[in-house]
Amino acid sequence: MTTRDYPEMLPDDNTIFWENERIFNRTPFYLVKCYYHNTEKIPINMHSHIFYEINIVTKGNGRHYLNEHNYSAHEGCVFVIPPYVRHGYWAKGNMEIFHILLHKDFMIRYSNELANLSGFVLLFEIEPFIRLCSNEDMFLKLDGERIEKLKEELEDLDFLQKCDYPGKEIMKISKTLYVLATLSNYISREQFRKLESPADSYTVAVMRCMEYIYQNMGEKLYIDSLCSMFNMSRSCLFRSFKKICRMTPIQYQLKCRIDKARFLLEFTDNPIQDIALECGFFDCSHFSKVFKNEVGDIPTKYRDKCRKSSTTDDHSYRMECFV
Amino acid sequence: MTTRDYPEMLPDDNTIFWENERIFNRTPFYLVKCYYHNTEKIPINMHSHIFYEINIVTKGNGRHYLNEHNYSAHEGCVFVIPPYVRHGYWAKGNMEIFHILLHKDFMIRYSNELANLSGFVLLFEIEPFIRLCSNEDMFLKLDGERIEKLKEELEDLDFLQKCDYPGKEIMKISKTLYVLATLSNYISREQFRKLESPADSYTVAVMRCMEYIYQNMGEKLYIDSLCSMFNMSRSCLFRSFKKICRMTPIQYQLKCRIDKARFLLEFTDNPIQDIALECGFFDCSHFSKVFKNEVGDIPTKYRDKCRKSSTTDDHSYRMECFV
Predict the structure, then answer these.
(1) Per-residue pLDDT band at B198 (split at 50, 70, 90)
(2) Residue of A nearest to B174 (CA)
(3) B189: which of A154, A194, A294, B77 is 20 to 30 A away, CA to CA?
(4) Domain B251-321 in CATH: superfamily?
(5) Whole-angstrom distance, CA of residue A59 vs CA of residue A162
(6) Within an 8 Å CB–CB cutoff, is residue A182 touching chain B?
């Protein structure tokens, strides 16, 4: 066995939490920022931020760190870092990554468009979650023709980021939506591929199952329907689910509901009643009880604290809540 | 002088008014339809429709008919047909046009994005209006490199229109926004070009002036400010304005206000009071009086009739109102 030639952990970055203000200007429609990042020249130690980050490895190879895990990454790998997740990069061989950073207002403004992309939940929610909890990387990996075609779009994005056309923000936003739609489409079809080993096929079935649970988080979950839908026995479903996401399907559904509720409480002014129903709780009192149990505060208090911490730029409250 | 080798007028199409239903499916996000159209093989006689149509001539040359006018068009010409405007195509030399048809819901859903494109008003409002009223064509004309680059995007759009990817509608929408942003950017910079003759420079000044009036239709209009802003004497401003758009600046502002009010009445549920203020009227009663004078009905009655005509698919009311 060869000796490991990369560090097992990365130290913290000087700034461990990056604010929106560090990244995005305050002009209207400044919702996307993107750039090439040579990880050898500028290694990035562990940090987190409030925005989503899409990474496309365009050259070389290296490692990607996430909490206590790390993963090898090479040209064509695509992965998403959700808000508040600690991560960093380390270059073994001149790894170049194209970063696309999405302001939370991007996610809110285009939530309908994104929800209509078939692989979006796999790319933005499920793959990052699996990586976080079980050290398995299910990166989307693009081969020759697909990565070359994508690189052309990234060149355009890079050009738009640097130029000062009037209307360039809208061009950047529309091109970003196009890239996200392309990637979602790829990951969606990727998961449909017939895989070699039965172990892989279980993984794919669990990912599909998680996607189904996510997309139907407002509905009651019937384990028997899941089994027949994904063609697995009850015990196989529970075993595979536990292996891949360290929880049962019902626990995963609860996590989806709580995550969505936190997002809606924090970033919208929707009434608590509406949020409760949208996230699949019976009523406000059921929502309040479960939410307090999981997050530590009742919904109204959580919303208040988030608003306060966002005016004082102190994100420690939200980061504490983020598991 | 050579004899004219094209008809002075085109006959009516079999269907003179095309419904949304003829063009767009009812699936969610089905907001864009696009295709190549060989005008020699399929000539299109005079017709109109409820949606915006963007035309990019990708090959050959021919003629484009608009009410009683007609214009020569060749590869690289870009022009927009607004809703309810009678138009048709006639091919002299195998003219191929790429059509992009935009459902009214596209214009509503992305109105903020479109309003942030600097040349958008020139492309979608002012150039088509000038063509309608003074037989002058100010087409955007793309030269070699720009039309070649654009053709690649149109190929992608054509592919997306024909394929059945999941999420392809979002890809089509995002690519369409990108194309519109590119064209708006071109026409905006085009108008800044130093033009040869003084006559041309007046035309450009008037177009800029119209753009300013459109974008500030909610404000009171001061002719002296316009004169100093666009470096024209009062008499020159009035003369050039009259020549190009057959009305005075104040009349043009009123037209913009009425058009916007009609759109908001027809396609949104915004309260009359809000529409009045947004369109630059003092209050509801001022709005009502002016609107009745111009359109023939008070705003509430206009809205009711539009809603009724849209359920019965009888567009004659709206077409009558359209000047």
Answers:
(1) low
(2) A174
(3) A154
(4) Homeodomain-like (1.10.10.60)
(5) 21
(6) yes
Report whether pLDDT(A313) > 60: no
Between positions 160 and 179 of B, the ones with CB within 8 A of A are 165-171, 173-178
Question: Mean of the pLDDT values across residues A285-291?
Answer: 96
Question: Can you give the residue ranges of every domain in chain B?
Answer: 12-192, 198-246, 251-321
A116 vs B112, B117, B170: nearest CB: B170
Q: Which residue of B has its CA nearest to A188?
A: B166
Q: How many CB atoms lie within 10 A of CB B55?
A: 20
For residue B233, name the pLDDT band (cuts at 50, 70, 90): very high
Q: Distances from the Cα of A81 to the Cαs of A26, A56, A64, A180, A262, in angstroms?
A: 23, 11, 11, 14, 18
Name which of A42-51, A55-64, A178-187 the model is least confident about.
Answer: A42-51
Higher local confidence (pLDDT), A204 or B320: A204
For chain A, helix, strand, coil in percent to 5 are: 50, 20, 30
Contacts of A173 in chain B (CB under 8 A): 113, 177
Topology classification of domain B12-192: Jelly Rolls (2.60.120)
Instruction: Say if residue A196's pLDDT is above 80.
Output: no
- Between the alpha carbon of residue A317 and those of residues A184, A260, A266, A308, B56, the distances in Å are 32, 17, 12, 10, 53
User: B81-122: per-residue pLDDT in tens?
Assistant: 998 899 998 877 688 999 999 998 899 999 999 998 989 999
Instruction: With beta carbons under 8 A apart, name residues in chain B contacting A185.
Output: 165-168, 171
A199 at B interface, C-beta within 8 A: no
Inform me whether the C-beta atom of residue B30 falls under 8 Å from chain A C-beta atoms: no
**Position A322 pLDDT exceeds 70:** no
Mean pLDDT confidence for B36-60: 88
DSSP single-letter state for residue B323:
-
Note the maximum CA span of chain B.
58
Nearest to B167 among A118, A165, A173 (CB): A118
Of B29, B117, B188, Cβ closest to residue A116:
B29
Position with higher pLDDT, B310 vs B163:
B163
Residue B314 has pLDDT above 60, yes or no: no
Cβ–Cβ below 8 Å for B166 and A29:
no
Q: Do B171 and A185 touch (CB under 8 A)?
A: yes
Distance between CA atoms of residues B40 and B42, nearest Å:
6
Say if CB A91 and CB A39 are below 8 A apart. Answer: yes
- B2 versus A147: the higher-pLDDT residue is A147
The answer to whether the CB atoms of B175 and A174 lie below 8 A apart is: yes
The separation between CA B307 and the C-alpha centre of its own chain, rounded to angstroms, equals 23
